[in-house]
Amino acid sequence: RHQDQTWQNMQATLGADVTLQCQITTDERISVLKWSRPDLNTDGYVYFYRNKRSYENYQHPSFHGRVKLRDPEMKDGDVSVILKNVTFNDTGMYECHIAVRNPVRSKRAHTEISHFIELTVTGEFVMPTVEAQTILIVAAVAVVIAVVIAVAVGLLVLLLKRNKKHHILLRKNQPC
């Protein structure tokens, strides 16, 4: 039994799809592939594959419908997965654990490989498009115009009321 470990750091932008890369360089048959989050200490895998098929019922609910193999045939030992629409909750440690069997040796002889990825999800400000900027400017101008009209109408009503009172006072003071 032989075991290898490798480490990698990755960054992804909030909402993006990210490829968690993992590859073996042997021609041995993959008997088990487990993508997990060891830092979560919860039941369920990111992705689980055994006996030539994946098992979604072993998957943690937060990864349902969001994880797939980059190459479903795992050609050239590529066992990378694509994680769709990453969130801040996806930040953390991922382990790609592979158990392989050499078809030439006895069935008991196998190798285990673990590759660890520390994923950091960052939120970056996305500059609005020209169309969105234009809409914001038009909306701001419309609000300013509405406020100016409201103030003008308010002043006009106030002046008319004052003027009406003044006119009534003038009439009272005039001789008949």
UniProtKB/TrEMBL annotation:
The UniProt GO MF terms for this protein read: sodium channel regulator activity; transmembrane transporter binding
Q: Pfam families attached here?
A: V-set
Q: Keywords on this record?
A: Disulfide bond, Glycoprotein, Immunoglobulin domain, Membrane, Signal, Transmembrane, Transmembrane helix
Q: Name one GO cellular component term.
A: voltage-gated sodium channel complex
Record field: transmembrane: 135-160
Question: What membrane topology was assigned to this protein in its record?
Answer: Single-pass type I membrane protein
SMART domains hit by this protein: IG (SM00409), IGv (SM00406)
Query: Which SUPFAM superfamilies does this UniProt record tie to the protein?
Result: Immunoglobulin
Domain spans labelled Ig-like? 1-114
- Whether Membrane counts among this entry's keywords is yes
Q: What is this protein called?
A: Ig-like domain-containing protein
